[in-house]
Amino acid sequence: MSFIKGYDLETLREIVDLDECGDRLAELGEQRSLAAMLEKVWLLKVLGRLDDALVVSEQSVRLARMAGTRKDLLRARVLHATVQQFRGAYAAAIHELNMCVEEAEGQGWAALAAFGYQHRGKVNFDAGNDGAARADFKKALFLRQEAGAPEDQLESTLLAIDAVDRRRNGAFVAS
Asked: Choosing a second label site near 100 at 20 to 30 A (CA), which of 21, 85, 109, 120?
């Protein structure tokens, strides 16, 4: 079940039903599996509980490092970077995502590299680096197409490219 109902066209943040997310977080309770912890991080993040999200994301990175695969670790690190982004720590998020993208591409993991590029694009978008954001989204789109990503992933990337273009065009008109 997807909790994402859409995306805010100004911020590119997920639009979610807060009650559904809160209910799911309660269902997960004290589960400590990596999958449950990663889901908790995302839920805490979209619920605005960023301090809790940071703690759980750091725990999930440690768990993935000890008991997961390299792909699990990259997913946990990307999610950790998104928490940093929501906290306004753009430089730290970009640094983390740079390393994740580099490793995913080096391993030939197109879908995971696309995931990293998509999120790095969102960080750049938040930081006002529209050129870098657009380049990241275009790379994510290419990799997602190459990997045969589902339609909803392609649509979210196209929406992000469109949001950057609208913002850039609006900035040019206002000048």
From this structure: 21
Q: In angstroms, rounded to a whole number, what is the distance separating the alpha carbons of residues 67 and 154?
A: 31
User: Is the Cβ–Cβ distance between 18 and 172 less than 8 Å?
Assistant: no
Q: Which two tokens stand for residue 122?
A: 């969102």
**Prediction pTM value:** 0.93
Average pLDDT, the chain: 95
Tally of CB atoms within 10 A around 119: 23
Q: Which long-range CB contacts under 8 A does 75-81 form with residues at least 24 apart?
A: 75/38, 75/112, 75/115, 76/34, 76/38, 78/115, 78/116, 78/119, 79/38, 79/41, 79/42, 80/41, 81/119, 81/120, 81/123
Q: Which residues contact 79 (CB under 8 A, 6 or more apart)?
A: 38, 41, 42, 57, 60
- Beta-carbon contacts of 56 under 8 Å, excluding residues fewer than 6 positions away, are 37, 40, 41, 44
- Residue 98 C-alpha from the chain's centroid: 13
Question: Helices marked H in 68-109 — which ranges?
Answer: 70-86, 90-107
Q: CA–CA separation, 81 vs 2, rounded Å?
A: 21
Quote the percentage of the chain above a pLDDT of 90: 94
